[in-house]
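Subject: for your reference before the review

Hello V.,

The reviewers asked for a structural picture of the protein, and I figured it would be easier to keep everything in one thread rather than splitting it across files. Below is the amino acid sequence we used in the manuscript, unchanged from the supplementary table.
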Amino acid sequence: MAGEIKVTLKKSSIGRKEYFSRVLNGLGLTKLNKTVVLKDTPEIRGMIRKVSHMVAVDE
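And here is what came back from the structure prediction:
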């Protein structure tokens, strides 16, 4: 897995548990509709899976 993943924040973390905010900050997602390009690693995939209901993923 040496590719890249584009992740976009689609829903705010306001009103959700602090855990979700920390995961999003770890991914570099701080504002709505912000897109980041991340390495495709198992760790990043796990973080995306935890907040999959709040983000959009383009591979």
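For the response letter, the relevant points are probably these. The chain has one domain: 4-58. Residues 18-27 form the longest helix (10 residues).

Happy to draft the paragraph if you're swamped.

O.
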